[in-house]
Amino acid sequence: MTTTSGQLRADPALERTKGHQRAWGWYDWANSAYVTTTGTVLISPYLTSLARNDACPDLASGEVCDATLRVLGVPVAVGSVAPYTITVATVLSALVLLFVGAIADRHPRPTWLLGGLAWAGATAASLMFFLQGTNWQLGVLLIVIATMCLGASQVVYDALLNRIAHPDDRDKVSSRAWALGYLGGGLLLVLNLVVLQTYEGLGLTYGMAIRLSLLSAGLWWAVFTIIPVVGLRRIRGTTATPVERSEGVVGGTFAQLRSTFGELRNYPQTLTFLLAYLFFNDGIQTVIASASLYGTEALGFDTAQMTITILVVQFVAFFGALGFGIVAGRLGAKRTVLGGIVMWTLVVAFAYFVPSGAFGVWMICAVLIGTVMGGTQALSRSLYSQLVPRGRESEFFSFYQAMERGTSWFGTLAFGLIYQLSGSYRPAILVTIVFFVVGGLILTRVRMREGIEAAGNEQPKVV
């Protein structure tokens, strides 16, 4: 056993086992089904249809709904309900994730915390089965809860990467887990595609087929979370900076947050990376969240076609994540992520020029997105893990998740605003290029070796 600031810390060799790494990666498999089926494909168009039913109950087939809904007295275009909902969910997550990070590092059993947060989110996802008619308000509430729980659970999950993988192995372990997530999400999407294509033969309405697909994503998330919770059950929490017990849970958490915010200035490279990640990940998250809406509303594809699109993205991303992991092993994760950001910029520009109804051209765009998506996200996670101070993993990964899901509201907000001002999704999608360019430029200024040394971590061979 070794000690950290007087606290017992388990022997790393007992935690960095193949069994722990395999069990850890299953949480990507578990939650990716919700991210793919619900978050990426179904919920934005479905929530928009529920809002349209409420705003324009007598709308004839093919007619455009020009009415607006009033939310807390504010007029909201029907087409902006979904992106605004994502914005609200991520803003609230920005607050919740920081508290989760402070609590997780002090929690004696981090995998129990991971399971509790995941199962709460999975419950909200499963309850989306009851969305129908004009009940878009319930949909807004469930999306907010599921989004917050997903981000909070991943704070705990990502922090465990430092515990179960050596610095030289993190790019590979993270990439494999991310690839596993795309494979799992893709498999469930295949099943849901079959249901959406054959719903009449199954004796279902189209609405019921969508609702069953939403339910399946929640159940998948809940069931497969059992694997990492059980597989990592022997890992115990530890903290490098214990808080006085007399302060209690709430007071101790606030004290821990004050300490962490104060210490960020001592890790300038970590802070610079977080700023870069805020921007380029904003672009990625906006594309993921808005792709289905862009395809259905701007290009005229139906839900089945968009499901095929995301299915192609999922399976291509499986190989893309593994490929990026191999490239990172040779060139380093930073160079590989920068190359991915350049590719993202070109892909968005390509998507802008896809003609309406040109599904074959849209498929080329899907292949390009799949190639770059998994790799940039997986390597960003492992790259940041090198800059996190030992014993403070969950706290610092809470900032990372705040940038990924808690502050990635800039892009969706800009997307929604530009649509509301222009009435078109084409100029709205172009706003993501700004986030990629700014994020990439900031990332070039991160001095990784210096940041790893400042965090007190072991230097990997290639970074």
Automatic annotation (TrEMBL):
Q: Can you provide one Gene Ontology molecular function annotated for this UniProt record?
A: transmembrane transporter activity
Compartment list = Cell membrane
**Membrane-spanning regions, if any?**
81-104, 111-130, 136-157, 177-196, 208-230, 274-294, 306-329, 336-353, 359-379, 399-419, 425-443
Q: Name one GO cellular component term.
A: plasma membrane
Question: Could you tell me which Pfam families the record lists for this protein?
Answer: ATG22 (PF11700)
Name the coiled-coil region(s): none
The UniProt entry lists membrane topology as: Multi-pass membrane protein
Q: What is its main location?
A: membrane
**The Major facilitator superfamily (MFS) profile domain, residue ranges:** 269-463
Q: Does the keyword Transport apply?
A: yes
Which UniProt keywords are given for this protein, alphabetically ordered? Membrane, Transmembrane, Transmembrane helix, Transport
Report the InterPro entries cross-referenced here: Atg22-like, ATG22/LtaA_families, MFS_dom, MFS_trans_sf
Name of the molecule in the record: MFS transporter
